[in-house]
Amino acid sequence: MPQTASGPKYRRVADAIQSAIRAGDLAVGDKLPPVRDLAWSLGITPGTVARAYTLLTHAGHAVAEVGRGTFVARRHMGQTVPAREYVSIPVQDGKLSLASPQLPDLGQVALLRDAFARIGETAPERLLQYPTRDAYRPLREAAIHWLRHIPLGRIEEEDVVLVHGAQSGLGVILQTILRGPAPTILVEELAYPGFRRAADLLRVEVVGLPSDDNGLIPEALEEAIRQTGAQVLCTSPDVHNPTLVSTPSDRRQTIADICRTLDVQIIEDDCYRRTSNAAPSYRILAPERTWHVASISKVLTPALRLGFAVAPRGRGPELRQTAEHGFFGLAQPLAEVAESILTNPETEAIMVAIRERMAAYVRVAVNALGSYDLTWQEDVPFLWLHLPQGWRAAAFCRATEARGIQIRSADEFALRDGRAPHAVRIAINAQIPLEHFETSMHHLRDLLIHPPEQISV
């Protein structure tokens, strides 16, 4: 097992065996070493090896035969995951939904079905008892491995708390860190509505901050903190939702320094994972006060409602206590399904395939709408369109609905007393055939070309 490898030990063992299969060092039908023999030679526990073998058999790289052992499976190694055609047309009230990203099925549905089937065959007592903290450890370790591509600095297993999606994570974090009878949090003037909704549940005042092409304006941040006594800054520095602005390193450093000087906590939302990160996270720049939220909803599936809240070092127990007091933790069968998905060697290839498919839809949208004031990135599943003269956002959304297409107005991302530009967010729906999506983009372009004669409010 390579000493430089990262991730849980069982995953490293499985990866090493899979590499040997791909390299031809292990051929189809070769018997893998007995669990105890391999454990002794590697200096690890038999349970770790057994888990690695289970991982390999679940992924189809090995097959276990009762009384004989575990063998290299007869399959083509090293191939990308074949695309599965699972096409539905998500509609609301009979309209095509481009309000939220819709992921294609490129293999994750089969993995989920297999995982649920295996959980159904588990020992009965595991379905009748309260789970212990240690029962969730494998999923927390799998989450750390899954987050390894994000520059978050060192993460320990105790720093991670499992939550029911990013929105649940935001609520749990705010419950943990807010103090006093009337706390205030800061967000961008246009921001992910979940920040506001989580604050509403806690009766927290929300103050909007202006931004420019590089994200939050530091001077406005400092002034707002001094005027309001705000305790928390909620932000999405890598992919701002909805404008797609990414905050560069020097601006992030300035913001981190202000929050440190004025003792403000930072919650960074990273649910729209980029394939490459342009700057270090706030968890690296201000590790003592940054709380990181991520989920699998935008890159794999939203169906599991699985998210990860990462606490600053030493504050994981506080966060975990809040979660346990609120909902006792994830259901154990769900945790086991999630662990199976995150540790499956096929998952990484599926995520890559999903990104590539979504990027094809982004390119179609850009080809149709690129002559307008459009902001986009191939690895982000939505686009931000500033409307041309003659259109207001609300009127444009009504016009698109009349053509059977739902999109989101900038008003949905503004605070209740805030102002929004005449802009709309268009989400990628890759669950419909590409030609149908292209047709919907042509409908939008036709509307942009022909604004109404009278401007409506």
How many helices in DSSP terms? 15
Q: Would you tell me the structural class of the helices and strands? A: alpha/beta
Please provide the count of β strands: 18
Estimate the global geometry from the Cα principal axes: globular
CATH class of the largest domain: Alpha Beta
Could you describe the 3D structure shown?
This protein is an alpha/beta fold and 457 residues long. The chain folds into three domains: 9-72, Arc Repressor Mutant, subunit A (Orthogonal Bundle), CATH 1.10.10; 91-108 and 347-449, Aspartate Aminotransferase, domain 1 (Alpha-Beta Complex); 132-328, Aspartate Aminotransferase, domain 2 (3-Layer(aba) Sandwich). The chain is built from 15 helices and 18 strands. The protein has helices at 9-23, 35-42, 46-58, 108-120, 137-146, 165-177, 193-201, 218-228, 249-261, 282-285, 316-327, 332-343, 345-369, 393-402, 434-449, and strands at 62-65, 69-72, 91-92, 95-97, 160-163, 184-188, 205-209, 211-212, 215-216, 232-235, 265-269, 290-295, 307-310, 373-375, 382-386, 405-406, 408-409, 423-427. A seven-stranded mixed β-sheet has the order 5-13-12-11-10-6-7, sandwiched between helices. It has a four-stranded antiparallel β-sheet with strand order 14-15-18-17, covered by helices on one side. Strands 3-4-16 form a three-stranded mixed β-sheet. The longest helix has 25 residues, at 345-369. The chain starts with 8 loop residues before the first helix and ends in an 8-residue tail after the last helix.
